Known about the structure:
The protein is mainly α. It has helices at 6-32, 62-107, 130-169, 174-211, 215-221, 223-258, 271-306, 309-312, 316-319, 321-343, 352-378, 396-421, 426-434, 439-452, 455-484, 488-510, 515-528, 550-576, 587-628, 641-655, 657-674, 676-713, 717-722, 728-772, 775-778, and strands spanning 117-118, 126-127, 382-387, 390-395.
Amino acid sequence: xxxxSEAFSQTLIPVCALIGILFALVQWFLVSRIRVASSGPxxxxxxxxxxxxxxxxxxxxxxxxxxxxxxxxxAISVGATSFLFTEYKYLGIFMFVFGVIIFIFLGxxxxxxxxxxxxxxxxxxxxxxxxxxxxxxxxAFWLGSLTSVLSGFLGMKIATFANAxxxxxxxxxIGKAFITAFxxxxxxxxxxxxxxLLVLYVSIxxxxxxxxxxxxxxxxxxxxxxxxGSSMALFGRVGGGIYTKAADVGADLVGKVEKNIPExxxxxxxxxxxxxxxxxxxIAGMGSDLFGSYAESSCAALFVASISSFGIHHDYAAMSYPxxxxxxxxxxxxxxxxxxxxxxxxxxxxxxxxxxxRQLLISTVLMTVGIAGVSFLVLPSKFTLFxxxxxxxVKNWHLFFCVSIGLWAGLVIGYxxxxxxxxxxxxxxxxxxxxxTGAATNVIFGLALGYKSVIIPIFAxxxxxxxxxxxxxMYGIAMSALGMLSTIxxxxxxDAYGPISDNAxxxxxxxxxxxxxxxxxxxxxxxxxxxxxxxxxxxxxxLSNPGSSSEGVLLGFAIGSAxxxxxxxFGAYVSRAGIKTVDVLTPKVFIGLIVGAMLPYWFxxxxxxxxxxxxxxxxxxxxxxxxTMPGLxxxxxxxxxxxxxxxxxxxxxxxxxxPGALVMLTPLIAGTLFGVETLAGLLAGSLVSGVxxxxxxxxxxxxxxxxxxxxxxxxxxxxxxxGPKGSDAHKAAVIGxxxxxxxxxxxxxxxxxxxxxxxxxxxVFAPFFASHGGLLFKYL
Length: 780
């Protein structure tokens, strides 16, 4: 037994979760004090005007600008809310149907028997019937699905609530605008982290009322929570990604290349759809994605622990080690956020990017200390863990290293992503230079960069896997993944900060605000942009040492954690399915391996073609409006934004179904028809292949995006020789950026979900596959 009592651990977890929720509400209250709509002569926004910012360049009065901001914000919010509600109607049907499938498959393992069964791992004891596992796995699936949907929806509402407020605060200075955007991101980050932890904690304790001492059955059924979270994340990521990239490609190709108008220009018919897409794709999609990773890594660790000495001896505090790590992570992230918003004041543009980078470093260092404390207080000095049928003796300091190496490996992967996708470094500058000879050489250089960027992250993941498995078997790998996600609240705050700032810049452009305000919002956007481009700022605001990939770092966390989570779930599946060894030399395993390696390519082909088809319709509609609506390009007539929003909405809802079906049905078909060994090969193949494709696709698209912004900024002598906007090199860069959009924002991020979702689905259905799977081989 560890030093921490069961009562204290039972109290610590919900208290930390509630502190996280309370902190998020405080941040929301502080942001809500900024009024968007005018409410009288003494309203708060009248105090926001800094000196004569709104009296230059013939800009409208503060009242008029404020009203425009409110109108634009409302249009973005209504569009995003409408899309998500429509999407969630489809997902509601899927949740019900797939929940019934889970019940039928798992209930049929023992013929829907209500008799207690001998335990699989805790020999000599009786466990609850298979029917109970079916019922509670279904309930856990629904709980995980609802929590994932809630995470995405709350994130979107917060982002659309904060975008115009960030724009208005930019009139008071860059520091105020930064704090508003970052606090708004923190609301999403802390709500998601705390809600995910609290719902999982409450679910375990409610399920325990029935399962009592049957912890093996309890934690096996709780894996449905991870399945629910990731299945919703898949559709959210794919649907949101198709939506945002269809609008983005349409707006860029016609607006920038053909009409030579600025990004976010109100004359562009696709501009509202583009801003809506930032919220439904980058905010709601990423929120659901990281929640799914958190839920799955927690469930994998809990399941392995339940069949080890923790579960067999009913050591609740040690059993709750994954949840306590997440609880401490919330407190660490709270301290980090307070430092960002209340201790260190941002006064100049050059301080924004170091501040974002500092959040990740501070939270990582503090979390390392927290992991050490939890490991020595919660875990016994020596214990045993399940290791594929054997018992591995492990010490508490082994787990400290497992969690810590995951935490630091994520940071390494993130900073490598930054190096390959930030225009402060030579890889992206080389891609930009290749635009001198046209789009073809730009595409060649970008693809080469993406492939090369895979090398170091794969070595980092490999080292984390080897060390974690050597020290603590599959439980060590699951905890390494959870360590990578332990600072999820700070990560999501930075992730949400990016699209909020992007929307703020768009609102400033559409509202016709002064050049100085647009420079500030552009600088905010650049620091948190997917590629850390500072390119939207004008040359005199260019940072002398730019280079951060705040969201790129997060992408590294997402990819790295997906690989580790998938491997941990794979190990749990192999154990639960009763597979002794996964031998790739056997035909059953090898055919699964090679087909699994193909799946990420099939999935990517589906999602990229979906973006292309939707973008084609968007381009045609934007061209039609420019050609048939006199006065549109002159700015005397308002575009038909609604039609473009409808094109993105209809396309994304229709096109998200085939890729989603591919991921959800493949494990069911493979396990039922070909058996547990073929499915094991399939999971291994998709994991190995999917991680490589995800990293290369995301970094290739990111590099093309930043190469374009490098040319647009013209901040260096080299960049000025390639520009200005509208030059042949710039047009080649825009084409590269457009090709990369579905890679970095749809296919690449969605592959994270593919590899971990198939693994957790296989784990949930493992009892059925072990009992009734392999129908084809039985009759051949």
